[in-house]
Amino acid sequence: MPVVLVHGVPETPAVWDPLRSQLARTDVVALQLPGFGTPRPAGFGSTKEEYVDWVVGELERIAGDGPIDLVGHDWGGGFVVRVVSTRPDLVRSWVTDAAAVGADEFEWHEFAKIWQTPGEGEQFFEQQLATPLEERGAVFEMMFGVPHDEALALGSWGDEEMAESILALYRSAVDVGDEWGPGFRDIAAPGLVLIPTEDTFLSADLARKAAARAGANVTELDGLGHWWMLQDPARGAGALEAHWSSVG
Fold first, then answer.
1. Which entry of 62, 90, 155, 245 is 20 to 30 Å from 28 by CA?
2. What pTM value is reported for the model?
3. Is the distance from CB of 217 to CB of 112 less than 8 angstroms?
4. Superfamily covering domain 3-106+175-246
């Protein structure tokens, strides 16, 4: 019965390492999205639907080892929203910290709007990749509360291929709430919506509304931000394990 973790943007599976070290379970698989520290397959356009199809393919492969407990963060959490809306048969349970993308009323944060704008998005990442690593890491540390060493690591993962993947992904998702929201209703598999109370990218109110529509439980991570799994991996692991225990 494997746990499958899906990372977000601008990340690699290493974002889960501190949390994985706190889990009692050893049957944990962390997926690596194409373009995020690994090459994209030929013809892969990095759209949201292509990523969902890719995740589904990975889950179908892993499902031979038993029912899956699926966990997603940031865009990985968005892919969880879509997977459980369209293929709930692939999971025993699910967790997302990005339930808001499953709300019809969803609106993107300001960084996303920059990335969705041709020219502005390219300029953003050109400047970002030209910034010294220490300065990139400092942004994650000072603005988002990520511990120093983890912030440096997070700042180091970006490259041109990741930037191209992020731009394509966000530009495919301008209307994601309208497109994915209607399907995120009455999900049969037991779900948990995590709400870090200091997350500045996603709306807590919309996350609660989406959780209610999906029939999912809610756990608030008081005082933690977007990168909760780096800020307090023990508390994050505890929330996941409590959820898994509740579903048997």
1. 155
2. 0.97
3. no
4. Alpha/Beta hydrolase fold, catalytic domain (3.40.50.1820)
